[in-house]
Amino acid sequence: MATKEEHVRKPEWLKIKLNTNENYTGLKKMMREKNLHTVCEEARCPNIHECWAVRRTATFMILGEVCTRACRFCAVKTGLPTELDLEEPERVADSVQLMNLKHAVITVVARDDLKDGGASVLAETIRAIRRKNPFTTIEVLPSDMGGVEENLRIVMDARPDILNHNIETVRSLTPRVRARAKYERSLEFLRRAKEMQSDIPTKSSIMLGLGETKEEIIETMDDLRANNVDIMTLGQYLQPTKKHIKVQKYYHPNEFEELKEIALSKGFSHVEAGPLVRSSYHADEQVNAAAKNKAQESK
């Protein structure tokens, strides 16, 4: 572990291959023309070149680019949002159609300024994509929306294919790492989602390298499984700017592989684990794996 004075050097295996082919530049141009935001850009995702240039997938970020929470790990702008664009769902649906996406991921900045936490706009985005892209699977990644059950119900009634809500870190680090969010409230959010729509897979993610122990990681796996979470991703935390919380440890790919095996042994239907894995990394594969697992269980 690093002390406050030490700087942990980034290892070789975290080098990223950049690819700025026509898919990448075309997708970036379309996002600007449609006045859309992506978490790929706003959160400085290390996989943006792979996803945009090679896989041609993107994670849309709706309800603006300003988040009402200031989590110490996140590069998304924080402050008081001024916009509520009710035409955004249709623009997202049009973009999904233009990109011919098989799987669309829709995330939402925390909007604690809105009574429903943005649930209504998220639900309408799901419905708009369904109308224009009936064969596209949809994954949503909301905040806890204040922990209000009715807000979650609005989203679940729109029936996304996967409900993703990130617990982000272990219990002991949550107060230092996440703003306003609570470990138990995230677990409750995931449990309620499964209770509302038992056939919709749920998913959560943990960042590693913030100072957690292996025992705490395994405890978090157990907590997620106890609340019927189906899919889990584990990735390396990367400090986006000097203002954000520092990296305490870089996990070796072999350590991620070991944690993946442990998670699978706990009963998760699908696990992605690796230094550059993020919540929506290879999300198209995850929804397919969840569908196969569901089909096997029904036999």
Count of discrete alpha- or pi-helical segments spanning 4 or more residues: 11
Calculate Rg over CA atoms: 18 Å
**Proportion of residues in extended strands:** 5-15%
Low-confidence stretches: 39-43
Name the overall outline.
globular
- Which H/E pattern describes the elements? HEHHEEEHEHEHEHHEHEHEH
GO molecular function, one term: 4 iron, 4 sulfur cluster binding
Binding site for [4Fe-4S] cluster 1: 40, 45, 51, 280
Keywords: 4Fe-4S, Cytoplasm, Iron, Iron-sulfur, Metal-binding, S-adenosyl-L-methionine, Transferase
EC number: 2.8.1.8
Can you offer a commentary on this structure?
Pfam families: LIAS_N, Radical_SAM. Its EC number is 2.8.1.8. The chain has 299 residues and is of the alpha/beta class. The chain is 40% helix and 14% strand. Strands 1-2-5-6-7-8-9-10 form an eight-stranded mixed β-sheet, with helices on both faces. Helix 5 packs parallel to helix 6.
How does the SSE layout of this entry go?
Layout: H1 22-33, E1 37-38, H2 39-42, H3 48-55, E2 59-62, E3 66-67, E4 77-78, H4 88-99, E5 103-108, H5 119-132, E6 137-141, H6 149-157, E7 162-164, H7 174-177, H8 183-196, E8 202-208, H9 214-226, E9 231-236, H10 253-266, E10 270-274, H11 283-298
Parallel strand pairs: 2-5, 3-4, 5-6, 6-7, 7-8, 8-9, 9-10
Antiparallel strand pairs: 1-2
Helix pairs in contact: 1-3, 4-5, 5-6, 6-8, 9-10
InterPro entries: Aldolase_TIM (IPR013785), Elp3/MiaA/NifB-like_rSAM (IPR006638), LIAS_N (IPR031691), Lipoyl_synth (IPR003698), rSAM (IPR007197), rSAM_sf (IPR058240)
Keywords: 4Fe-4S, Cytoplasm, Iron, Iron-sulfur, Metal-binding, S-adenosyl-L-methionine, Transferase
Cofactor: [4Fe-4S] cluster
